């Protein structure tokens, strides 16, 4: 659950107008918008209101249990945390109450009258109009409380914070349209009680049987008991000859509706697949089944249980730099301690959901304690291995699922080489790339498959980075590789260039960018040895173009670090080549645009000695025209590399002049 206290920055209270009792307060514009949308998009999926209110009550009980570890007075004489759902048919109301942490006045204003969470805007934007999907989005985005208005004309919330006096309670009331009122009231017990006056078309929820069904469906795994009144037991038949008993008619008793068992504490063999899936959906707030999961109990010097899930879809903010949640909940001896225990998973596995329940950590563990803790470190490294093992198995046994996984989360895994040196080889095994071996984008290969196709004598893994599949596939750098039948990995994700700066080798073979440094393919078998005549022919050509290359070098001395004859090109006249340790040009430009200071590294221009343009240039007497030729060579090479030209207008002008010269 997120901490909403910052929300008060937007609330009326923070603007200096503490609401007077009974005064009408206005909702934020976003709240109104959200309410309208919810009410309209959920009318055929109304039942989720109960899931959301129970989930809030459960959070409130979790919070209190956690705080009471340090301060047991908070529990007063009422230590058994629970949630009660009740119905008043005559009044047409459903009430959800809990004896959790409760809220004081400021918290009510901040948490219930305002939406300050970063997710809200995305929530509004991601509403699809499909009711099923939208209903499921609500829990994910943490806007659950407002779902009460889907079924209720009027919502009344009475709450008293644990530890506060009975007369410090607050009554919040709203009919949705535009605002709410607040009043100070008395409440005998701590916690929150929410009463919904049901709309005409939501009266079905006055039926206790219907409510039980909804609770079983969505809230079975809530770890606190959810209680409802049972059926009134029939009065015992008076025995023959006796008078009817004079006692009061029997009272119905509260009964627990949910299972409330901590699923992960049960033996694996007793848990059905469906139970794992339901548990995931309830606990991790997802609406789809997970792709796969791993449930482990570890015993010995350390005792803990982990239940780790791989989701099907990435959450909306997975790649949002500021908002990198972590999906692991931490329990200690079955007591919920915290959400988003970021110490338990590295960032590149932040998409993994689930929980860890430790028997060894102290109950009063805090985020600070977790920072530097041997127990946590051990759990973390074992959990990483589990997740990687689970993914490896999926890649092997369910390649289609794995392809879906890679699509959603591959870019996350690519952060691993920079973050987790120890596991980078194992993570790299999971990578999938486009390749020159296949014809289409999206026909990916693993590194192991690439290696299995390597030519005899090939000991390098060749790759190219570009800003799109097309740019990579059509790069002039690929020409010689295509010619010789040597496979090249086509990398076109933004993170690839960065990733490759950390991933130097795999399986003992080093990665080589085909767009950087010198190329030597001579050791590779199948790259036919040149005949002596061919060789002599080539040398003659190279000699012949040497003066032209010198002339080009002089013209382009400000723009290139060198100009040389190429061994990579077969059909293009020129290409740019970066130094072994330089960043690809398209990346350099991207980073510069984003405001980063970079040392400029100039490319080498390689020209193709066998290309007829070189002959034309050789014959060019006019110095100005030669300059134009040289610039055109460089600019087209830059363009083919996905770089932007500094002087694109100049390029166009030169090109047009060349056309006209042809005509002349
Ligand atoms: P979320 O649960 O994701 O935070 P909600 O809209 O469901 O979003 O709830 C908003 C906030 O209202 C909660 O974060 C919590 O601070 C407060 N709240 C709601 N219900 C309760 C409750 N039963 N007890 C205490 N606080 C509550
Ligand atoms: Mg909630």
Question: Can you offer a commentary on this structure?
Answer:
- By secondary structure, the protein is α+β, with helices and mostly antiparallel strands.
- The protein has three domains: 3-229, Histidine kinase-like ATPase, C-terminal domain (Heat Shock Protein 90, 2-Layer Sandwich), CATH 3.30.565.10; 263-406, Ribosomal Protein S5, domain 2 (2-Layer Sandwich); 532-663, Four Helix Bundle (Hemerythrin (Met), subunit A) (Up-down Bundle), CATH 1.20.120.
- Helices cover 36% and strands 17% of the residues.
- It is built from 22 helices and 22 strands.
- The strands form four sheets. The chain has a nine-stranded mixed β-sheet.
- α4 runs antiparallel to α5 (131-141).
- The chain is elongated.
- Residues 1-16 have low confidence and may be disordered.
- The chain binds adenosine-5'-diphosphate and magnesium ion.
At a glance:
By secondary structure, the protein is α+β, with helices and mostly antiparallel strands.
Record the SSE blueprint.
Layout: E1 24-26, H1 29-41, H2 48-70, E2 83-88, E3 93-98, H3 105-112, H4 119-126, H5 131-141, H6 148-151, E4 152-160, E5 169-174, E6 179-185, E7 191-198, H7 208-219, E8 226-229, E9 254-256, H8 273-283, E10 292-298, E11 304-310, E12 327-332, E13 335-338, E14 353-358, H9 367-371, H10 374-397, H11 399-413, H12 416-419, H13 424-428, E15 434-435, H14 447-452, E16 460-465, H15 469-473, H16 479-484, E17 489-491, H17 494-500, E18 505-506, E19 509-513, H18 532-555, E20 562-565, E21 574-577, H19 585-593, E22 604-607, H20 612-619, H21 623-640, H22 648-663
Parallel strand pairs: 2-8, 12-14, 16-17, 16-19, 20-22
Antiparallel strand pairs: 1-6, 2-3, 3-7, 4-5, 4-7, 5-6, 8-9, 10-11, 11-14, 12-13, 15-17, 18-19, 21-22
Helix pairs in contact: 2-7, 4-5, 10-11, 21-22
The structure holds adenosine-5'-diphosphate (ADP) and magnesium ion.
């Amino acid at each position: 659950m997120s901490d909403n206290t910052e929300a008060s920055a937007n609330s009326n209270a923070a603007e200096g107008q503490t609401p007077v009792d009974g005064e009408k307060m206005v909702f934020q514009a976003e709240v109104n918008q959200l309410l309208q949308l919810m009410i309209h998009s959920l009318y055929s999926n109304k039942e989720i209101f109960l899931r959301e209110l129970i989930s809030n009550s459960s959070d409130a009980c979790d919070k209190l249990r956690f705080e009471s570890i340090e301060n047991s007075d908070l529990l007063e004489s009422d230590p058994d945390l629970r949630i009660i759902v009740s119905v008043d048919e005559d009044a047409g109301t459903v009430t959800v109450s809990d004896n959790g942490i409760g809220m004081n006045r400021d918290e009510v204003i901040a948490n219930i009258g305002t939406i300050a969470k970063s997710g809200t805007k995305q929530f509004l934007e991601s509403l699809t109009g499909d009711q099923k999907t939208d209903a499921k989005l609500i829990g994910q985005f943490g806007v659950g409380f407002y779902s009460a208005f889907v079924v209720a004309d009027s919502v009344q919330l009475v709450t008293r914070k644990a530890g506060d006096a009975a007369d410090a309670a607050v009554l919040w009331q709203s009919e949705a349209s535009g605002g709410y009122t607040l009043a100070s009231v008395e409440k005998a017990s701590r916690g929150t009680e929410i009463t919904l006056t049901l709309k005409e078309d939501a009266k079905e929820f006055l039926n206790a049987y219907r409510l039980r069904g909804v609770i079983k469906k969505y809230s079975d795994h809530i770890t606190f008991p959810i209680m409802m009144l049972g059926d009134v037991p029939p009065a015992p038949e008076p025995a023959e000859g006796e008078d009817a008993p004079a006692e009061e008619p029997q009272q119905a008793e509260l009964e627990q509706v949910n299972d409330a068992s901590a699923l992960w504490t049960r033996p694996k063999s007793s848990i059905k697949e469906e139970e794992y899936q339901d548990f995931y959906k309830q606990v991790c707030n997802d609406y789809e089944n997970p792709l796969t999961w791993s449930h482990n109990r570890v015993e010995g010097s350390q005792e803990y249980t982990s239940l780790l899930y791989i989701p099907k879809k990435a959450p909306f903010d997975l790649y949002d730099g500021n908002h990198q949640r972590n999906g692991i909940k931490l329990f200690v001896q079955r007591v919920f301690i915290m959400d988003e225990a970021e110490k338990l998973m590295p960032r590149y596995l932040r998409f993994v959901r689930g929980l860890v329940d430790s028997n060894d950590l102290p109950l009063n563990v805090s985020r600070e304690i977790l920072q530097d803790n041997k127990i946590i470190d051990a759990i973390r490294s074992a959990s990483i291995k589990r997740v990687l093992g689970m993914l490896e198995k999926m890649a092997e046994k369910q390649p289609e699922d794995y392809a879906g996984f890679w699509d959603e989360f591959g870019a996350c895994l690519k952060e691993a080489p920079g973050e987790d040196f120890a596991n980078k080889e194992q993570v790299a095994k999971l990578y999938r790339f486009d390749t020159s071996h296949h014809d289409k984008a999206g026909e990916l290969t693993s590194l192991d498959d690439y290696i299995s196709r390597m030519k005899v004598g090939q000991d390098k893994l060749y790759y190219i980075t570009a800003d799109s599949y097309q740019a990579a596939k059509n790069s002039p750098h690929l020409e010689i590789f295509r010619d010789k039948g040597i496979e090249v990995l086509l990398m076109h994700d933004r993170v690839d260039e960065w990733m490759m700066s950390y991933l130097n080798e795999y399986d003992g073979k080093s990665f080589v960018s085909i767009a950087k440094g010198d190329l030597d393919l001579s050791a590779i078998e199948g790259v036919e040895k040149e005949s002596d005549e061919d060789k002599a022919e080539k040398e003659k050509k190279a000699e012949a173009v040497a003066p032209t290359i010198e002339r080009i070098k002089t013209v382009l001395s400000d723009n290139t670090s060198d100009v040389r004859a190429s061994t990579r090109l077969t059909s293009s006249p020129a290409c740019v080549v970066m130094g072994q340790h330089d960043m690809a040009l398209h990346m350099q430009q991207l980073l510069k645009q984003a405001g980063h200071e970079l040392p400029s590294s100039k490319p080498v221009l390689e020209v193709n000695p066998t290309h007829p343009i070189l002959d034309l240039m050789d014959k060019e007497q006019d110095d100005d025209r030669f300059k134009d030729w040289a610039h055109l060579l460089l600019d087209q090479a830059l363009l083919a590399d996905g770089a932007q030209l500094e002087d694109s207008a100049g390029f166009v002008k030169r090109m047009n002049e060349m056309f006209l010269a042809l005509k002349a």
